[in-house]
Specification:
single chain, alpha/beta, four-stranded mixed β-sheet, 8 strands, 17% strand, globular
């Protein structure tokens, strides 16, 4: 949660929401005395007042309407896929499973849906075909650490720079190209259409 100052160099972080045992964000919040809201408890009543912009980055917490509206500009999020393709929490892994030639990252404006808000910024990256030959979860981690994590920082920085200048970009997602895949960690999810897509993308076919 941010407050925009007169210069972008002095963006003020006025609050963070993260698990109490997080080794990174929570630790930094304590070091710099930034108010911390435990994950799962963020709402319009618990978030700080006088917020200009809220940001989620590859987050699994849902931001409700009252919470979004409490911020002056609303909330943006970073999702590691080329929305509207691969909505859902396992987007990177599904891009690998389906052998997409390219993927990317999207900064979008949060709304009532899951990964359905207007697009602000996108960037693409080619998926190394070598990743198709290793375990999808490991391949997804490699893709995140080598490409998509840094991409998210760049896109969020672009968003902050433009919003600070009064430039607001909102492009509706093209629903006809949307896909939503289940959490790959849930073993009992059965979605035959996804299984057929994986089989169709297999080199043996």
């Amino acid at each position: 949660m941010f407050r925009l100052c007169n210069s972008l160099e002095f963006v003020e972080v006025v609050g963070v929401c993260a698990p109490l045992d997080d080794k990174y964000i929570t630790k930094l919040a304590h070091i710099f005395n930034v108010p911390l809201i435990p994950a799962g408890t963020l709402n319009a009543d618990t978030m700080p007042s006088d917020i200009d912009l809220g940001i989620t980055a590859h987050s699994f917490d849902y931001i409700g309407k009252k919470t979004r509206y409490k911020s002056k500009f609303g909330w943006i999020g970073y999702h590691p896929s080329l929305l509207p393709r691969h909505r859902g929490r396992s987007s990177i892994e599904w891009a690998v499973r389906m052998r997409d030639a390219i993927t990317g990252g999207t900064v979008f404006w949060l709304n009532d849906g899951i990964d359905r808000g207007d697009i602000a910024y996108q960037e693409i990256v080619f998926i190394d075909p070598k990743l198709y030959g290793i375990e999808p979860k490991k391949a997804a981690r490699i893709l995140w650490e080598h490409e998509l994590q840094a991409m998210g920082l760049r896109l969020i920085e672009n968003a902050l720079t433009d919003i600070h200048k009064g430039i607001i970009i909102k492009k509706p997602q093209q629903k006809e190209y949307s896909t939503f895949e289940p959490n790959a960690d849930v073993k009992d999810v059965y979605k035959p259409d996804l299984l057929m897509l994986e089989a169709h993308a297999s080199p043996s076919n």
